[in-house]
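Amino acid chain:
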Amino acid sequence: MHNARIIVRLALWTAIAAVLGGLERFIPQPIPWAKLGIANLAAIIVLYGFGWRSALLVNVLRVIAVGLFLGTWATPVFVLSLGGAITSVPAMALVRAIGKEHVSVVSVSATGAFVHMLTQFALASVLIARHSGLFIFAGPSLIMAIVSGVLLGLIASWLLARLPESLVRDM
């Protein structure tokens, strides 16, 4: 029964992440190629409540679901999103593990956003642009990612303190 409850909670967080990811398409973007990443709220919450493997699973399933829903499956956009989703969770988990109680949710989230964006630029330079000139845009994009990561970290911290334990913890 315990495993079934965890599966249901992770499915719920995956669905929340997918809906947020789909809705984000309708939010104006401050930089044309840089989204706010609100779907990553679910991964941050799952990271703190269920661990990095569960957060990685939620993130990957979210990218697949959004790719299927929005028609970006098997496109460069999908590959960039998947790459960022796969690298950001271990980076957040590492910062959290190294910092223990001295690193906040905000710092963990900002790290994830930075690594996500950096991964996307690296993949884009190999798969799309095929030259390092693309990195001219990296500075503003990485700054935007950090700002977004800080905002999402504040929201995630607020949610972790207020959502019922049964929803955000492996009980």
Remarks:
- Residues 138-162 form the longest helix (25 residues).
- Residues 55 and 77 are 21 Å apart (CA to CA).
- The chain has a mean pLDDT of 91.
